[in-house]
Amino acid sequence: MLQTSTALGSLALYRSSVQSIVYTISTLFITIQMAVQGVFLMGAFCASMEIEPFLQPREETRVRYESCSGGMKIEARYGCFPSRLYLSTKKKIHPT
After folding, report:
1. Does the residue 16 lie in any domain?
2. Which of 1, 59, 91, 95 could pair covalently with 82 via S-S, beta carbons 3.0-4.6 A apart?
3. Residue 29 belongs to a domain
4. Cβ pair 82, 68 in contact under 8 A
5. pLDDT value of position 52
6. How far apart, in Å, are the Cα atoms of 8 and each of 5, 13, 14, 16, 19?
7. Mean pLDDT score of the chain, rounded to an integer?
8. Residues contacting 80, CB < 8 A, separation 6+
9. What is the DSSP track for 32-88?
10. 85 in a domain, yes or no?
11. Taking 70 as the threshold, does the pLDDT of residue 80 lie above it?
C-alpha cells in the first residue's frame, strides 16, 4: 500500500513538473513574439519620424488656405439609388 501511494505521488509530481515546463515554454514563446513585435514597431516609429518634414512643410513652400464666405455644400442629384445590390464579382451593381 505504501509503494502505491509513493508511485501516485511521484506521478503527480512529474505531471505538475511537465505542466510548469510547458507553461514556461509557452510564456517564453509569447515573450519572444512580443519582443520581435516591439522591434518592428520601433522601426515603424523611426520611419514615421522621417515622414514628419513632409507633413510640416517649410514656410516658403506652404500654401495659404483661403476660405470662401459662402461655405460649401454637398448635393446628391438624380436620386436613383439601387434597392438591391449584386455582390458577385462578375455582375455589375444595377438598380432593380
Report:
1. yes
2. 95
3. yes
4. no
5. 58
6. 5, 9, 10, 12, 16
7. 77
8. 95
9. HHHHHHHHHHHHHHHHHHHHHHHHS--GGG-------TT-------S----SS----
10. no
11. no
Structurally, how many domains does the chain consist of?
Answer: 1
78 φψ region: left (φ > 0), alpha (ψ -120 to 50), beta (else)? left
Q: Which domain covers residue 10, as residue numbers?
A: 2-44
Average the pLDDT over 13-34 and give the result. 96
Residue in 74, 69, 93 with CA at minimum distance from that of residue 83: 93
**Side chain identity at 48, as an amino acid letter?**
S
What's the pTM value of the predicted model, to 2 decimals?
0.45
pLDDT at site 18: 95
Q: For 34-68, what is each residue's pLDDT tens digit?
A: 999 999 999 999 888 777 566 677 788 777 777 77
Q: Is residue 87 part of a domain?
A: no
